[in-house]
């Protein structure tokens, strides 16, 4: 590992748009030539630029760790975090993944390309969780990255993953609580029945909650990552913790393996004992996620080092 220190500069993604986002550009302190860089893309829900959940800050850990290896990065508040109410109240849009995530990731990428300290030919996307599921589409719709890093993602559809997570919650409850949870989940599941047979307009009329309609899921499912991944020839790095209870090895990592095994552009890395946030698993149960993420931990050098080595190798920097 190089002994670079790092610097961070405040930036605004989407400076002149309706939804400007605060962010940080993190750079190696020693800059002699333009360096490779990554754009971080959040998982589901509202997250700040560090992707903070409980006492964990995955994107901060990765940004500072990669900078020490000579790799720059950009991270920013998610639109639903910075402008949640404004986004929901906007009468001119029906919220989809495009408005929530894709547009801002592409704007952040363009900021990197315009910075003379960044090598514009060696910009990578690092998607975590749902961000990993969206990364191939972001690449296709304007990101045009050198390579993709998919952390704890899945080639499956979002609603399938959510239903599996719900079933895991049922499995870990008992008695009356289990019956109540089962009833709530059955109602939730019923919303997706026949979803892909609906017209777009019909799906837009069915509200799911938090300003989101069924069209959010339909539109995302119709642009599933497997559609893009199978065609990609550029480098792809797929990372997974074997104690992840949100995107599992059995159903998600193995689905990537089945889809992409044998492709020379794809590298798979499985980390023993790590959870969805790539820190050591504590409780290992989805019903104890809040407690697990409430313990301060940081992504270790093994994950950061592997990611940095992969980026530098594909950037022809030794």
Concise synopsis of the structure shown:
The protein has helices at residues 58-67, 79-82, 84-89, 97-113, 130-143, 158-171, 175-190, 200-204, 214-221, 225-229, 249-260, 289-293, 301-314, and strands spanning 6-13, 21-28, 35-41, 72-76, 118-128, 147-151, 207-209, 212-213, 236-241, 266-271. It is an alpha/beta fold and 318 residues long. The protein has a single domain (6-156, 224-314), classed as Alpha/Beta hydrolase fold, catalytic domain (Rossmann fold), CATH 3.40.50.1820.
What's the layout of helices and strands?
Blueprint: E1 6-13, E2 21-28, E3 35-41, H1 58-67, E4 72-76, H2 79-82, H3 84-89, H4 97-113, E5 118-128, H5 130-143, E6 147-151, H6 158-171, H7 175-190, H8 200-204, E7 207-209, E8 212-213, H9 214-221, H10 225-229, E9 236-241, H11 249-260, E10 266-271, H12 289-293, H13 301-314
Parallel strand pairs: 3-4, 3-5, 5-6, 6-9, 9-10
Antiparallel strand pairs: 1-2, 2-4, 7-8
Give me some keywords for this one.
10 strands, 8-stranded mixed beta sheet, Rossmann fold, alpha/beta, 318 residues, 13 helices, globular, two-stranded antiparallel ribbon
């Amino acid at each position: 590992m190089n002994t670079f220190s790092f610097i961070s500069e405040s930036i605004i993604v989407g400076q002149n748009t309706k939804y400007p986002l605060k962010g940080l550009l993190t750079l190696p302190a020693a800059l002699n030539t333009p360096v490779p860089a990554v754009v971080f893309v959040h998982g589901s829900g509202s997250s700040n630029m560090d992707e903070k959940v409980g006492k964990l800050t995955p994107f901060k850990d990765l940004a500072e760790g990669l900078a020490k290896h000579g790799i720059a990065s950009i991270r920013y508040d998610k639109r639903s975090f910075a402008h949640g109410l404004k986004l929901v109240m906007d009468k001119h849009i029906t919220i989809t993944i495009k408005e929530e995530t894709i547009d801002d990731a592409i704007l952040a990428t363009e900021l990197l390309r315009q910075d003379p300290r960044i090598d514009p030919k060696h910009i990578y996307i690092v998607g975590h969780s749902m961000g990993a599921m969206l990364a191939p589409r972001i690449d296709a719709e304007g990101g045009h990255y050198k390579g993709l890093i998919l952390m704890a993602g899945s080639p499956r559809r979002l609603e399938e993953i959510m239903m599996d997570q719900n079933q895991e919650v049922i499995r870990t409850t008992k008695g009356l609580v289990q019956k109540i949870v089962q009833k709530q989940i059955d109602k939730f599941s019923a919303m997706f029945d026949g979803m892909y047979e609906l017209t777009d307009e019909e799906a837009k009329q069915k509200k799911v909650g938090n300003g989101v309609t069924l069209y959010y899921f339909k539109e995302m499912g119709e642009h599933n990552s497997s559609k893009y991944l199978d065609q990609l020839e550029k480098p792809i790095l797929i990372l997974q913790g074997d104690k992840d209870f949100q995107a599992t090895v059995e159903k998600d990592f193995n689905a990537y393996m089945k889809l992409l095994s044998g492709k020379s552009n794809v590298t798979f890395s499985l980390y023993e004992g790590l959870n969805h946030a790539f820190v050591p698993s504590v409780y290992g149960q989805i019903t104890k996620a809040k407690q697990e993420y409430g313990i301060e931990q940081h992504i270790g050098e093994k994950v950061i080092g592997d990611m940095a080595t992969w980026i530098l190798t594909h950037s022809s920097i030794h």
